[in-house]
Design goal:
phosphotransferase system, 9 strands, two-stranded antiparallel ribbon, 7-stranded mixed beta sheet, alpha/beta, PTS_IIB_sorbose-sp
Length: 159
């Protein structure tokens, strides 16, 4: 299977993803999965600029991403899937994409969120989605950068 890593990051592609994660995991393609971003040309242009040289980029709506992955379109590549929120990844899992582990990275703070770690902030809907992913057997870890120890995200969520 071509999926090497799956990460939730509100910033999508930025320094940590572009430099640290793609290098550590030897990624050849970054796939941003988000229905809204896939239709936003300005945001897509920014993502292209942030993508490291030599790494391919796909910015796809959820269903097209699932169809492409399941059709084996990326089987020869090392794929890093990035989504802004956990609901996008739950939908991929429900569509049959074999995701076994999700790295919960940065989720920005807003007036509606509560803090889980200094960089992960959630609303009740996110918690519900994380519980559903957990119930489907997806391992959830919190790990900001590759040098950090991966922590069990569900135990952080229940604190």
């Amino acid at each position: 299977m071509s999926i090497i890593g799956v990460r939730i990051d509100g910033r999508l592609i930025h320094g940590q993803v572009a430099n640290l994660w793609t290098t550590k995991l030897n990624i050849s393609r970054i796939m941003v999965v988000d229905d809204e971003v896939a239709t936003n040309d300005i945001e897509k242009s920014g993502l292209k600029l942030a993508t490291p040289a030599g790494v391919k980029l796909s910015v796809l709506p959820i269903e097209k991403a699932a169809n492409n992955i399941l059709a084996g379109k990326y089987d020869s590549q090392r794929l890093l899937i990035i989504a802004r929120k956990p609901d996008r990844l739950l939908k991929l899992v429900e569509l049959g994409v074999p995701i076994t582990e999700i790295n919960v990275g940065n989720m920005s703070q807003t007036d509606e969120t509560r803090s889980i770690t200094k960089s992960i902030n959630v609303v009740d809907q996110d918690v519900e989605v994380f519980n559903q992913l957990d119930a489907k057997g997806v391992r959830l870890v919190a790990q900001m950068v590759p040098s950090d120890k991966a922590e069990d995200f569900m135990s952080l969520l229940k604190k």
